[in-house]
Amino acid sequence: MPTIYASGTLAKKLYINLQEPTGRFPAAGHFQADNLVVRCGKTHIMSKASMVEWVKECVADPNNPEIDVFLLDHWTGFLDHELFNSALPDGVEIEIINIPAGTTGIVQPLDLYFFCPVKAMIKRIHAYVITQSIDFTIFKRDHILMVISQVYWTICSPVFTEFLKYCWFRGGYLDTHPLPFETPNQFSLNPANCSIGCKTCGEDGLIKCAYCYEVICFDCFFVKLHRCA
User: Fold this and answer.
1) Distance (Å, whole) CA 86 – CA 51
2) Could you please report the per-residue DSSP string of 157-208?
3) What is the pLDDT of residues 145-178, one digit of tens each?
4) Is the model's pTM score more than 0.90?
5) What is the DSSP letter of 89?
6) In this structure, is the dihedral angle defined by the CA atoms of residues 211, 142, 54 and 112, taken in order, positive or negative?
7) Which segments constitute the Transposase Tc5 C-terminal domain (predicted)?
8) Which helix (H) or strand (E) holds 129?
9) What residues contact 45, with CB distance under 8 A and at least 6 apart?
C-alpha cells in the first residue's frame, strides 16, 4: 500500500500484505528490501492490526515529509481515527479526511492516476521476461518482491515528482497543473533501451535508471538489484 504526498513524493517504505495458504511465510523466509515492509496472512486484505503496523512502519517513518492532513479511503480501519493516531509517536496527531463511500475511483489520487501507469510498467517487465525466455519466475514470491522493490525505488526518484503531483491535480486537490512529465514506462522502459548495452555488464539493456540515467539489463537491475543512489 503506497503513501503518496501532494508534494510529488512517496513514503520511503511500501507496505505489502501477501496471501499465504497457512497465513505464514515458509521457514526459509522471504526476500527483504529496505524499502518494503512485507507481511502475510491467509488473505491479502488488510485488517485493523495490519493498518496499525502500516502506520507505525510506513506513515510514521521520520524520513517521510511531515503530514498535516491525511486523505484515506472509506474503509472500516481508516474510519477509526483514534486507532490510527494511537499508532503514531507520542505527541503526534494527524487530521484525517475520509473519502466518501463509493467515490474512490473519482477522488482517490492513487486510483485516479498512480496505479494504472505503475501496473503497466510491471506488466511490461513481465512481458519482457516471458518473450526473452529469462530464467525468472514472475509469480514466485521472492521474484514478485524483487520487481516491486525495484519499481518502487524507481518511482521514488525526483524524475517522477511531476507525475506524482498529477495524481493529486487530477482529483482537483492542486490548483497548478504539474510541469510536463514522462510516465514510468515512457522514461524507464523506452523500447530504444534494448538497442543499448547494459552499463554494468554489456548485455542487452532494458531499463533506464531514474537516478544515474544509465541503461541497465534485466539481470543487473532486478536480480542483482541495481541501486546507484
Assistant:
1) 11
2) SGGGHHHHHHHHHTTT--SSPPPP---HHHHH--GGGGGSB-TTT-SBP-EE
3) 999 999 999 999 999 999 999 999 999 999 999 9
4) yes
5) P
6) positive
7) 168-228
8) helix 115-131
9) 17
